[in-house]
């Protein structure tokens, strides 16, 4: 990856690749999670704990192959009620793997298989290990490409690396794996041949090639992102949302989109966004950690930052930024406005150019704007401050004290007009300009 970060910390859909894999395990109902990492990866360990707090982390100090890596978690594999159940071995750089892709493998293990692997038909098998089946259709061996014969190299059924084991046999199989191969490593895939010699049942199930796309560089990272986004777009549309130009809308892994939502082109959803039924998102908006209520309207060119909540029918218009604020039912913040650390009451109207001055250089302060109040254009509300229900703020005002309910607050200076001032000013400046030419 040519990066200072571990590969599996790079993100797809706004989530670390390893987070996708751990979350998949959680979704499958895993009771335990063991993660094997390389040395000096404390940042990665924190990411792992974020997704599965009880995850046990093991460090593989020497890179001696995939079987050696799995055996770093020996203490976990050797526990459990009579070693019942199954173990899945997943990889942190395959963020597109799904429950559906794994279900066949899981079903086979529950139905008597002792060890299994997830495979795919590769359009171009070069570089992949090959899955070799016997006459009965069971898995006979997994052959790494470097060790494959010419005939075996013609096989297009390839190994994804994802494997499953009946827990009661797993450690015995791994302990018998040797490193007699071109790389001198302990291959997890050799567990298949070991199992066969012991009369155990080995199987292979099929998934799509995209499901097990491994990411090894920035090019493959962008490929994974493209596939992820295509899937999310299809899911949103099948769930009842309209995407006018789907290819220009970008989702995060946790984006939730309701029914009858309309999303115009060029919208980006950062992490933590929920769009409820009937909301309308205009073009060129960016949303992150925000909740958009039913029938709310956003944009165009709006930015909703973390902590934003729009209630039913609220409206946020063009060139508006909202941060850590609630816009209550039917309230309008139509244009050219910043609302931060605030609560805007139901049916309030915030005029163009209004800002909440929420930061004093040291601390953030809150602004409360009452329901059905009216804030005139180009007003500055200096927090902490409360605007009462039904109150009016005159345009261009700077409000630093609370305003009572139904009151009018105006802080404009008294108008002053100086007749013919501009004539005298221009003449004065012209004389100065002329004098400069002669010096």
In short:
By secondary structure, the chain is of the alpha/beta class.
In the CATH hierarchy, the architecture of the largest domain is Alpha-Beta Complex
End-to-end separation: 65 Å
Largest sheet: 20 strands, parallel
How many DSSP E strands?
Answer: 33
Uncertain runs:
none
Percent helix among the residues?
10-25%
Shape: elongated
State the CATH class of the largest domain.
Alpha Beta
Q: Which structural class matches the secondary elements? A: alpha/beta
Q: What is the average per-residue confidence, as pLDDT, rounded to a whole number?
A: 95
How big a fraction of the residues is strand?
25-35%
In DSSP terms, counting alpha (H) and pi (I) runs of 4 or more, how many helices?
10
CATH topology of the largest domain: Spore Coat Polysaccharide Biosynthesis Protein SpsA, Chain A
Total individual domains: 2
Layout of helices and strands:
Elements: E1 11-12, E2 15-16, H1 17-27, E3 34-37, H2 42-51, E4 56-59, H3 66-71, H4 74-77, E5 86-89, H5 99-110, E6 115-121, E7 130-133, E8 139-143, H6 150-153, E9 157-166, H7 167-175, H8 191-197, E10 202-206, H9 218-238, E11 242-243, E12 249-250, E13 256-257, E14 262-263, E15 267-269, E16 274-275, E17 280-281, E18 285-287, E19 290-292, E20 297-298, E21 303-304, E22 308-310, E23 315-327, E24 332-344, E25 349-350, E26 355-357, E27 367-369, E28 374-375, E29 380-382, E30 385-387, E31 392-393, E32 398-399, E33 408-409, H10 421-437
Parallel strand pairs: 3-4, 6-10, 11-14, 12-15, 13-16, 14-17, 15-18, 16-19, 17-20, 18-21, 19-22, 20-23, 21-23, 22-23, 23-24, 24-25, 24-27, 25-28, 26-29, 27-30, 28-31, 29-32, 31-33
Antiparallel strand pairs: 1-2, 5-9, 6-9, 7-8
């Amino acid at each position: 990856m040519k990066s200072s970060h571990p590969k599996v910390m790079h993100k797809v859909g706004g989530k670390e690749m390893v987070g996708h894999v751990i979350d998949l395990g959680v979704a499958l109902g895993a009771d335990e999670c063991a993660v094997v990492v390389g040395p000096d990866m404390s940042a990665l360990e924190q990411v792992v704990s974020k997704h599965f707090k009880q995850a046990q982390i093991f460090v593989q100090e020497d890179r001696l192959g995939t079987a050696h890596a799995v055996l770093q978690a020996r203490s976990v594999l050797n526990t459990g009620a009579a070693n019942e159940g199954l173990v899945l071995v997943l990889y942190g750089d395959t963020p597109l793997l799904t429950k559906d892709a794994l279900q066949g493998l899981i079903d086979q293990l529950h139905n008597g298989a002792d060890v299994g692997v997830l495979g795919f038909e590769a359009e171009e098998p070069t570089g992949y290990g090959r899955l070799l089946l016997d006459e009965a259709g069971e898995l006979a061996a997994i052959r790494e490409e470097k060790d494959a014969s010419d005939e075996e190299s013609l096989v297009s059924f390839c190994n994804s690396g994802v494997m499953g084991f009946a827990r009661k046999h797993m450690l015995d199989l791994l302990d018998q794996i040797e490193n007699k191969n071109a790389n001198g490593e302990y291959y997890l895939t050799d567990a298949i041949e070991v199992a066969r010699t012991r009369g155990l049942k080995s199987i292979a199930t099929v998934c799509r090639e995209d499901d097990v796309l491994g990411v090894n560089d920035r090019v493959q990272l962008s490929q994974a992102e493209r596939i992820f986004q295509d899937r999310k777009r299809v899911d949103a549309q099948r769930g009842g949302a309209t995407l006018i130009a789907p290819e220009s809308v970008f989702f995060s892994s946790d984006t939730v989109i309701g029914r009858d939502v309309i999303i115009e082109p060029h919208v980006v959803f950062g992490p933590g966004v929920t769009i409820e039924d009937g909301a309308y998102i205009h073009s060129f908006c960016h949303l992150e950690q925000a909740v958009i209520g039913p029938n709310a309207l956003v944009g165009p060119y709006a930015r909703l930052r973390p902590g934003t909540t729009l209630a039913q029918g609220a409206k946020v218009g063009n060139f508006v930024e909202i941060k850590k604020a609630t816009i209550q039912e039917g309230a309008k913040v139509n244009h050219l406005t910043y609302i931060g650390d605030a609560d805007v009451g139901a049916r309030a109207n915030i005029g163009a150019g209004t800002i909440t001055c929420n930061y004093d250089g040291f601390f953030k302060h809150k602004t409360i704007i009452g329901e059905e109040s009216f804030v005139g254009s180009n007003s500055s509300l200096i927090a902490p401050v409360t605007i009462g229900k039904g109150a009016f703020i005159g345009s261009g005002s700077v409000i630093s004290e609370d305003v009572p309910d139904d009151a009018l607050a105006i802080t404009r200076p008294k108008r002053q007009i100086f007749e013919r001032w501009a004539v005298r000013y221009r003449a004065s400046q012209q004389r100065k300009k002329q004098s400069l030419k002669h010096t």
